[in-house]
Amino acid sequence: MPQPSAPRDFEALRAALVARSDRLSKRLSQVAQFFLNHPEEVAVSTLVHLAELAAVPPATITRFAKELGFQGFSDLQLVFRERLLGPRLPYAERVSGAGDRDLDQPGVVFGSFVQAAVQSLLRIEEALDRDQLEACVEVLAGTEVVHVAAARGAFGLGAYTVYGLGSLGRRAQLIDNLGAMRGMQVGAMGPGDTLLAMTFDDYTPETVEVVKLAAAKGNRVLAITDNALSPVAGLASHVLYVNEARLGHFRSQVPAMVVAQAMIVGLGRRLGTVDINQNHKNENFVASTRILAKDGRGRTS
Asked: Are 247 and 116 spatial neighbours (Cβ–Cβ below 8 Å)?
């Protein structure tokens, strides 16, 4: 069997992993998820350290590299290092060298989160697919009701999105599984409604289930997630990928919030309810009130 050609850059690597996702073993899929979700760690860490972080034997990472056509891990790591060329590499090196003892100081923790947020914003500014963002806004502009599925770590992002959409006069509801009625909430979605799902590694099972239920009903699904191997990516018509920086177990939510805000404001501009050049505190509320007064609904969501 001929040896596959190794991807030359990070985007080609991601595409190769998506193409092979249904053929990778459980262990190799675990490595693929970890590598896509922690590219900075892969770029600056040793094979042994990465194996510990990914909870796999070092030999599995070597086998993963060869599965993609590389001679070994070092050649694969070059793809991740090239992704960090420019001003971001020193930051990645600093994060890699930070000791757990320093994180006992709240001030150091604060600074680390600030650096992580700045770093992730630089990445998302370069990597976000603007065409997908535009497509998401167009779908939301033509939908009847937006149902938002976001739980656990993504709950705050989902709740803010419901608030933001409501402030534009767009009916929005949070699928919160209150009373264990998740299935009934999805079942109440109308044919013109859209599901907006937000989930990141480790992918909340309840959110994944909601996406599957909505897709099975034929509702449109939009997703904000971290990479193309996410269980919701293949079920959505449009996906916005946000790879958020981490500090230990905690994830910086700043880039995902910026993406959500851009989508909300973009929708407001599309509907003619938001003018970001004006400095009136209650502008969104006034604009949405006028919209509601015109169509006679008298309520937001």
From this structure: yes
Is the bond preceding 295 in cis, omega lying within 30 degrees of 0?
no
Backbone angles phi, psi at 106, to 5 degrees: -55, -35
Q: What is the pTM of this model?
A: 0.68
- In this structure, the dihedral spanned by the alpha carbons of residues 257, 259, 265 and 266, taken in order and rounded to 10 degrees, is -170
63's CB contacts (< 8 A; 6+ apart) are 28
Contact yes or no for 39/123 (Cβ under 8 A): no
pLDDT digits (tens, 9 = 90+) for 196-241: 999 998 899 999 999 999 999 999 999 999 988 899 999 999 999 9
Q: How far is CA 152 from the centre of its chain?
A: 14
Alpha carbons 31 and 55: distance in angstroms, whole number: 9
Q: Taking a C-beta distance cutoff of 8 angstroms, is the pair 10, 39 a contact?
A: yes
